[in-house]
Specification:
This protein is an alpha+beta fold. It has one domain. It has helices at 4-15, 28-34, 43-58, 81-89, 92-96, 101-115, 131-141, 147-160, 214-222, 250-261, 307-310; strands at 75-76, 165-171, 180-187, 192-196, 204-205, 228-229, 240-242, 245-247, 264-268, 270-271, 283-286, 301-304. The strands form four sheets. A six-stranded mixed beta sheet has the order 4-3-2-9-11-12. The longest helix is centred in the N-terminal third of the chain and has 16 residues, at 43-58. The radius of gyration is 19 Å and the shape is globular. It starts with a helix and ends in a 5-residue tail after the last helix.
Length: 315
């Protein structure tokens, strides 16, 4: 059942009218510590943020009981010929470099952010949803690409490099016409799932450069804290608005935007080249304990409250 405070707030709100230069890995922690995101919200922005935090606090926990709910389990495929050709065509091994793992991951995310960037604010998606087709479509038509497309590109590149990764949709408690797609990657060196956002060329971290995963991001928001993220170096096409409220910077906007979209998460069950172009896409939804999700009767939707199963260590 939708929280009345949240529902009333959303209704009222609707009625109201780059290139980032990577530092050497030895300086990376210093960069994160010296470039914190400054949260300086006005009253309206703060009220919106508090509303989203309150919604998270109403459903703070996940369960550990429905361990068998994700069947047949997560699938990762990275051996497709097309992925190898894609890596070779764009010389992505050189793009990634030979530095530490996080540096390589950020180099690849930077590349995706830049190659899918457009000065056109008209968004259109191609019919074929894979990295190669998406980039070709953007180069030909110069349309802006949404977060879904950018995340598919980064996810397939990471698969090609041998990572276990998935496109993950960060979602609000009540569908409002908007979710946000990012990429979650299992890091062998850190032994954890982390998140990268190629749309805004940023990632959440602990202040010392250590990247956070979705559960850590949600936990921070749920505790009323703002998880740190790399400052967004983009220039907006127009005013930054969220539910009729204007924001002065992308960092302010993103802080509140992700508080909204941290409530629940969804991933395609299979992560492989061109998967979202073929047939019905089975998605697994992670929802908090006690929450009644939409589309629970959809045969292509699997719902679980088990966060450990959702983010299990890949084989």
């Amino acid at each position: 059942m939708v929280d009345k405070q949240y529902q009333t707030y959303i209704c009222k709100s609707f009625l109201r009218s780059g290139i980032v230069v990577l530092l050497l890995n030895s300086l990376f922690s210093i960069f994160c510590q010296q470039s914190p995101v400054v949260l300086d919200l006005n009253e309206s922005q703060q009220n919106m943020f508090d509303t989203f935090v309150h919604r998270l606090q109403s459903y703070p926990r996940f369960s550990d009981v429905d361990v068998a709910s994700i069947q047949p389990g997560w699938q990762y495929e990275s051996t497709e010929k097309e992925l190898a050709e894609f890596i070779k065509k764009y010389d992505l091994k050189k793009v990634a470099g030979t530095g530490p793992e996080m540096e390589r991951l950020l180099n690849l995310m930077d590349w995706v952010h830049q190659i899918t960037d457009s000065q056109n604010n008209f968004i259109m998606n191609p019919d074929t949803l894979n990295a190669r087709a998406i980039i070709q479509f953007q180069k030909k038509h110069h349309y802006a690409l949404n977060c879904w497309m950018k995340s598919i590109v980064l996810n397939e590149i990471l698969l090609a490099f041998g990572y276990k990764s998935r496109r993950i949709s960060c979602m609000p408690s009540q569908f409002d016409g908007d979710t946000h797609s990012i990429v979650t990657i299992y890091s062998p060196s850190m032994k954890k799932w982390i998140c990268l956002d190629p749309t805004f060329n940023t990632f959440f971290h602990d202040g010392s450069g250590n990247p956070l995963g979705y559960l850590e991001i949600r936990e921070a928001y749920c505790g009323g804290r703002v998880p740190r993220f790399r400052s967004i170096q983009m220039q907006p096409f127009s005013s930054l608005m969220l539910f009729g409220i204007a924001f002065e910077s992308y960092d302010q906007w993103y802080t509140v935007y992700m508080a909204k979209n941290a409530f629940q998460a969804s991933c395609p069950q299979a992560s492989k080249f061109n998967y979202e172009s073929t047939g019905p896409v089975v998605k697994v939804h992670l929802i908090p304990e006690g929450f009644a999700a939409e589309e629970e009767d959809n045969p292509n939707r699997i719902f679980t409250t088990n966060a450990l199963r959702f983010f299990e260590k890949p084989e």
